[in-house]
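stuck on this:

***
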Amino acid sequence: MNRILLLVLFSATLFAQEKNEQDVWEPLRYFIGAWDGDEDGVAGKGVGDRTYAFILKDRFLHYKNTSTFAPQEKNPEGEVHQDWGFFSYDSFRKTFVLRVFYVEGFVNQFVLDSVSADEKTWVFLTESVENGPPGLRARYTITIHDAEAFVETFDMAFPEKEFKTYLQNRWTRRE
């Protein structure tokens, strides 16, 4: 009886330690908080406001983004762009998935494609583009510069074309 009790306690302890040691979210905890953006892309130069927070019992990392482009030569009307992103961890594939909902009606589902050796550059590629033309692809790259700044690049490729940068944002931690 004592051996069985010891075995059960030992197994439970190992399971608890393994669960505590594996925080798949650790690399993305860097983003938690509020950020100010300096943006440049096809809509012109703009400013961004973004927040990241864990939601739904810390199972998803959610961001809210607003980008404002004042009227300018590239964009005479100006523009306010919004998008919401949801990072999830796919435990079967053992990778991160990012779903982004854009004010224009597009929904991109990205999957993590690669992480640099220093873990500062993360590249996500679309698995699907909802409400976009058939064959449209997107690439989302995050490059962490230091504890207070990162750059993200959003590239698109139309069928049988190479990726072209659509937007590049430089984010600085506000909080």
Remarks:
- Residues 5-10 have pLDDT under 50 and may be disordered.
